[in-house]
């Protein structure tokens, strides 16, 4: 390694990195360590190699396909199972800059070491903001976060913008990395960026240059989640609140969620940006809501103090299975964001009526013996499960998994009156069973032995869970998979959990 200052950086290199704010700046020769080889990590490596940086990807588990691609593009790589091994490689590489994948906690040993050495540590969103001008067609960023509903609202907003004639793509936490979108040679008019709290945690960490400035932004809702990652509810709130910082035109918030309104009130926005609320009530002149069964926009009508644009009716949404309260909130939020970007109300309405949600999001699977089955495997926390339960009566609930430090006692107490039974899955069964015993009103409860994390045990767990739930349910009841917990204790991810639930339902006689 070459000589460095006491902080581990050449002053000239540190100054150079701090001012990098364009694709067209000189990124060549920078030594950049990329932590993680998931879809985000690879996109970062691919981008920086293209820009001429020397890139080394450090990761914990083999990935033969991406490893081959790293070799092809000319990136260095190092796979090591333990943090000390990874840290030794990172230190030996001597990075000028570290780019971290979203899943790395703020107190991760590698990022802690880098920050202690005075080495900048960015996320992919900060890097993307600096590189957003590869083409002359520089996209507006419409940023969306929230404890639940992010992906559906991101897809809805992109669908509406496309209906309005814009070239648009969803990106970010939704699965398509922001850097892949930014490198599209045609460019976009707008990018709808889904942001997790993990990504928001590092926005602005590289100084003012990397503090993003969304065209419009939204936090859909806020409830305790990922407390094990952020350390406290206050830290989680602060991460979510960053979505509104430097917003240019519209800060969209949930009128029924005071936490999101407080985020907007405290945000440092661009002068002239408006606060636009959405909710299931009658909207004020600046908001979106419902009047006599019609979703309306009072936020962007020239005569909004006395008139509103009509979008769609609740009856039309019901015909399409889009009338659950949380889905209606998502639709209103997306409408507010699309209207902020200039999409007409007729285009918004057409987009809503042509929209189909992804699988495993309150997906109705049909009936067996008069019992309905709903796959809401995407309900990976208590807030999402609450929304799913509120839309139903007479429920046999399949619940459990990785609770992420959250107590579900209040969730059980709130919905005890609609529960006909519960089936507990997952490895963290004790707190779930205790909550059901305390607050469940004596409903029947069956616990499914977790076994190992394997395909065979995952199939067995869900088959046994569905059989137990079917045995508790009577005609007119609903068996609901809304686990209020993450899936990775027994399943690959929440879609895997949902697919196994659907297969078990299909196998019912």
Give a quick precis of the structure:
The chain has helices spanning 11-19, 39-50, 64-73, 83-93, 109-116, 124-130, 150-163, 178-182, 197-201, 227-230, 233-241, 258-266, 314-319, 325-340, 345-353, 382-390, 409-415, 429-439, 455-472, 494-506; strands spanning 31-35, 54-59, 76-79, 97-100, 121-123, 140-145, 168-172, 190-194, 216-219, 250-254, 274-278, 288-291, 294-297, 309-313, 363-368, 371-375, 395-399, 419-424, 445-447, 478-481. The protein is an alpha/beta fold and 509 residues long.
Verbal overview:
There is one protein chain. By secondary structure, the chain is of the alpha/beta class. The chain folds into three domains: 26-119, NAD(P)-binding Rossmann-like Domain (Rossmann fold, 3-Layer(aba) Sandwich); 128-353, UDP-N-acetylmuramoyl-L-alanine:D-glutamate ligase (3-Layer(aba) Sandwich); 363-506, Protein-Tyrosine Phosphatase, Chain A (Alpha-Beta Complex), CATH 3.90.190.20. It is 38% helix and 18% strand. It has 20 helices and 20 strands. The strands form four sheets. A six-stranded parallel beta sheet has the order 7-8-6-9-10-11, sandwiched between helices. It has a six-stranded mixed beta sheet with strand order 15-16-20-17-18-19, with helices on both faces. It is globular and about 70 Å long. Residues 1-7 have low confidence and may be disordered.
